[in-house]
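Teaching note: in complex prediction, the entire set of molecules is handled at once rather than each chain in isolation. The prompt given to students was simply: 'Predict the structure of this complex.' The entities are:
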Amino acid sequence: MEKSYDIAKTEEGWYKIWVENNLFKADNKSKKPPFSMILPPPNVTGSLHMGHALTFTIPDIIIRRKKMEGYNTLWLPGVDHAGIATQMIVEKNLKKENNQSKEEIGRDNFLKIVWDWKDKSEKRILQQVEKLGLALDWSRMKFTLSKEMEDVVTKVFVDLYREKKIYRGTYMVNYCPSCKTVLSDLEVDHREVNGKLTYIKYPLKKDSTKNIIVATTRPETMLGDTAVAVNPDDERYSGLIGEEVLLPLAKRSIKIISDNEVSREFGTGAVKITPAHDPLDYSIALRHGLEHRVVIDQMGNMTGDIPEEYIGMNREECRKQLTEKLREKGLIEKEEEHIHNVGHCQRCETAVEPNISRQWFLKTAELAKPSIEVVEKKRIEFIPEKWEKVYFNWMNNIQDWCISRQLWWGHRIPAFYCRSCNEIIVQTSAPEKCTACGSTDIIQDPDVLDTWFSSALWPFSTLGWNSGSDDFKTFYPTSLMATGFDIIFFWVARMVMMGIHFGKDIPFSKVLINGLIRDEKGQKMSKTKNNVIDPLDIIEQHGTDALRFTLAIQAVPGMDISLSLSRIKGYKAFVNKIWNASRFVIMNLKGDESFDFDKNRITIADKWILHYLNMTIKETNTLMDNYRINEAADLLYHFFWHEYCDWYLEFSKNDINNRDSRSVLKYTLFRFMQLFHPFMPFITEEIYQKTGAEGKFLLNTEFPQFRSENVFTEEYLNIELVKKIITETRKTRTENKIDPGTKLNIFLKTGSEKEKEIFLRSEKYFNFLTKSSKTEIVPDFSSLPKGFRGVLSNWEILLPFENDEDREKELERLKKEFKKTDSMIISIESKLSNENFTKRAPEKIVNGFKKTLQESIDKKTKIEKTIKDLS
RNA sequence: AGGCGCGUAGCUCAGUUUGGUUAGAGUGUUACCUUGACAUGGUAGAAGUCGGCGGUUCGAGCCCGCCCGCGCCUACCA
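The expected output is the structure of the full assembly:
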């Protein structure tokens, strides 16, 4: 085996072999209990980022272990067509390369280009996903816009329409003037913007010397005003309700009305009403039967029945010019700096324009009800639980979902309109003639569905729900959905609604929520901040295993992760450590080892590690069962490095000629490879194969379980004692600057016959690890030459002085230790002298304190005596 | 405006659900060591008023209350 671990050599080969050997392939006929997950499909436009690495690694760890535990596992991969994002990119390319717009080449031609582009882009993202080593069943790979998915989407749409849950209506929606489509509420990000609050005088019609002042952040919308509203309880304006004002610049007069939704405190308490361009105004207008005047078009330019000079002008420019004009006319009372929330398009960051248009909506209230119930009843569990609240909060206030988009790339809405009689026909395939009037002049709705509509169906559409497949029967509901908190509303909530409605059951029983990946300063990663860590770079330089382990050990459920390079490097060193420890074991194996070793022929150290490993396995399983992946990773890390490598491998160097000890060495290494395999699939497989796996793969082996035959409590405690004596001896050596290479005669003293026996059984380990040429246990140090002293509870250590100068130093050190021990005794004594404590605390705790106290007192006495000796 | 979360070693973070003996990890840092698995290493250290105050308790990093600082989500105040 090579002296240092070659990442590329190991990580390149195995994935292909695993896939070729169908290791990840699910079996829908299996009698084993199923465990299934659906991969959150990455966007076809995307490239792998750290968020993916985390969201994919954690479930991979889970499913690999589940498979090893004997479950019939399925992890189904897929890719999302990502409506707006993809269309925008391809449109941009088309403009850049051919200077053409999509309208110029037409819908069909454009879509052909998108499909070509999708094929290329998909290949790239999938290659990147593969680098993570995920146990995905590629034979079941799905695409959200494939024919198969389209059939499901269409059927669902038609069914919902027939159930009257999908309807078409004219409402105020969010419109992105840049993407040129409507957006759902969720696709709008509210951001604080420094704006101006402009106070404008609207002169009264009956007496133009008087006016009512309104405050607005968007003066340009005044051209579409159809009223001014005040609160009915606002005394300042009570006499004006019902009066008319002259709308400046527009040569129209509008009424002053009253409405409870108007706040008296904000601005002047009077608000201009622009029903076509503001959601609040829209709802007030509905109540009062006000006219809608559209003055801003879908591109964000001024339009409609407005003064000539503004027509076609951009909304921001118009705001400036119009304000100037008002100022000239003396109609601006004042302008104030004003920070307010403005909706922005999530994709392109353009400020959205509230817009009235006719769109398709999904009625959500009825679907939400059972979806709330299943979480309340814990049929679906959020991990960590706190995300339930977020889910409930949204579900309880859910609004109807605007599902149509003015795009070409997506699932076309299966609605057909008769141009002769305006009949709307919703069905899975295009009608030949109108079902009402028989006309053949029929056109399909040009719009497509929100990308998230197909995503909402993902857990059952991918399993062949439509065709009643065995996959659906075997693997639905799925077991676990691992995803980020940012898409609980977008995706999780909607999957639950659709899953219950169409899948007739919850889509998954657990939702594992992971946090955000940040940089090492806790900042969000973004291209503009130039702090993005690319997982592919990390994999290239430090390996997938190191990246996976770093993510795993840091992934506290639901918490953000600050990812630092130094930490990754630290775990890369750990991977190397695993390599070298394995190298040691493998180098020492002779080929005659057996996992069926003779318990009577193994050493006390063997029993110690078997016991310790057994306990660790038990704890690991408990942690993993509770999705505490990070704690399991931490536990294994510590145990492997600081118990197995630091102690056991050192002990074992003394027992290498014992065939049964070598067997334990091989056995324990094998167990470690199994335990680590879900976290670090590559290096563990490599090492497992080197120890002679005989055609099997780690994933086919049974995950370690607690075994009662490996309980050796006494031996475990004995070695723990010897470890302490060794550490104290080493400490005495290094503290006194004894050359590490020098072999010494070491003298020990103990007050316990029992511990003396224990020690003698492990003396060889002691000699080996303390560089003792000869160890003598003596009843008394007084007849010996003076030396450095180490003190444990029941033990004393003496390392003879090389020369006399050392004595002072030694005294000083002992005094310090005396003080430390003494203060500890005082603290424990005060605790134990408290009757309340001894009476009420559990016996185990009290006894623990008592034991520690006795040990400390012993130690103190010994130090005291030693100090006297040396003085 | 509501809701959620965070504050623990120089830095980045576990541990708090279930209170219990001397609070852990990575990195950094000190001394020594090219010991035959490993210098991506070893041995032994130093380093923390667990944000502040108060309460409950025999006992609080952990439970409760208040305060300070920071972050996020939701929401139609023009």
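Point out the following to students. Residues 843-870 of chain A form the longest helix (28 residues). The mean pLDDT of chain A is 89.
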